[in-house]
Amino acid sequence: MKQNNKYHLVTDLNFKTIEQKPTRFGYAEALLELGRVNPDVVVLDADLAKSTLSGKFQEKYPQRFFDIGIAEQNMLVMAGGLSLAGKIPFVNTYGVFLAGRAWDQIRTSICYGDLNVKIIGAHGGLSVGPDGATHQALEEIALMRVLPNMRVIVPCDSNQAYKATLEAAKIKGPVYIRLGREPVPVITTDKTPFHYGKAQTCRQGKDVTIFACGLMVYLSLVAAEKLQKKGISTRVINLHTVKPIDKKAVIKAAKETRCIVTAEEHQLMAGFGSAVAEVVSQNCPVPMEMVGVRDTFGESGQPWELLKKYHLMDGDIVKAAEKTIRRRRRER
Fold this sequence. Notes:
By secondary structure, this protein is of the alpha/beta class. The chain contains 13 helices and 16 strands.
């Protein structure tokens, strides 16, 4: 595995050879570590422990694990109560169920009181694959980031999910972490730093900046390689902390490259790209293009087939970058 010493990132991005793991693997490992070092960490699940991998914690620490059953609203309220008793609850189920069925409980019973609850939304994005539209969380970043006191993290790979989970346990207050189901390329290493609230520059460039989160960071790096062959110098930034967003990094990139692309495995409306646009429009308006799901539900299919059908692939990012560069040139 080749590594970029400057960024501590994998440089061999070949999909056929790069290591791949689900982000939930890193989360499960971190949960076990937290259980070992902190007796106040407790875990709740809604009858999906095998899928979310919280069951690994159950095997090791059964007295600190609670399977609430298919009762997501009750689970969130219970987590709030546990936090008031001094515990650090990690709540697990699919993102669509958390953000959809239990949004009121997250809002009123947790965020309103700024309670110390960690909410882990599995099955994020189209790459869930065969489970289809009912299980593909495409709206929950928007629903979580709008809540006062909520923090939102979208790790790009298994290694980053591990580090983000450990960091979340240190934060006082509610945190939402989005995880995926399918294996995705591992582009970070054990040495790659993770700083909550701080963007991670993966590649420098002067012609256009691509901001991405989750799986889309890998696809953005692949897109940057293709753009480089066309003579376009591309900056790629992993904006893993969607809220609080790193405003300084966004403004700096807008001023220096003068055009931006955002890439997300989520609805475009009110999602990750909208969070970046809020900063850009108020501080340094420049041409922007967004790659994401365009006001539609997903469907059942193989993960990479779905990403291609819904225009979330590296080629789509390349087209968006070229378009925003053309817009910048017309405005001069």
